[in-house]
Amino acid sequence: MTKLKIDYSEARKQYIKGNYTDEGRTFPSLPEIAREFNYSLSTLTKHAANEGWLKQRTERLKLKDIINMRKDFMGKAVKLTKVCFNAISAAEFLINKVEEEQREINEGLKPFEISLASKQIWILRQAMNLIVNSQQTLDLIENGYMCPLDDIGL
Asked: Does residue 34 or residue 2 have the better pLDDT?
């Protein structure tokens, strides 16, 4: 007499992927699945262990967390990119102001003072640092080196 082979695919799917409810997604336990599908708990447990259902569920949950983390990061990366572009624009504004002052000095509209020259040098250094740091940050974002997945080993 031939034994009927039981198809556990629907039980596997429900255990690994979970169920959608009004409160969100829930993950049933093996006893709950055994009751729902009217399977023997010991047979279902052995089958689940042999096929690695728990490991598959865990990997799926980790992947979901990584995807959510990546979505959060991408939103922050967009904001960080905007901040970098604003910083570069501010630095360009400061450089233009220093050039304007220099033009006024060269045309004799404004007297040259050593304190003014020191201030201009300081402003130009700060503006260049702002541009360099912003550009490095933009390069890191563009090349993917600021990805949160870099710190996670799978």
From this structure: 34
Residue type, position 69, single letter: M
Contact (CB, 8 A) for 131 and 88: yes
Check: CB of residue 33 under 8 Å from CB of residue 55. no
pLDDT of the residue at 126: 93
Integer-rounded Cα Rg, in Å, for the chain is: 31
- How far apart are alpha carbons 66 and 146 in whole angstroms? 14
Q: Does the pLDDT of residue 30 top 80, yes or no?
A: yes
d(CA 47, CA 12): 9
Of the candidates 91, 19, 17, the one whose C-alpha atom is nearest the C-alpha of residue 83 is: 91
- Roughly how many angstroms between the first and final C-alpha of the chain, as a whole number? 46
Beta-strand ranges (E) seen in 7-143 are 19-21, 24-26
The answer, as to whether pTM is greater than 0.70, is no
**In the chain, where the domains are located:** 9-51, 72-151
Residues with Cβ within 8 Å of 48's Cβ and at least 6 positions away in sequence, in order, are 12, 15, 30, 54
- Could you tell me how far CA 101 lies from the centroid of its own chain? 43
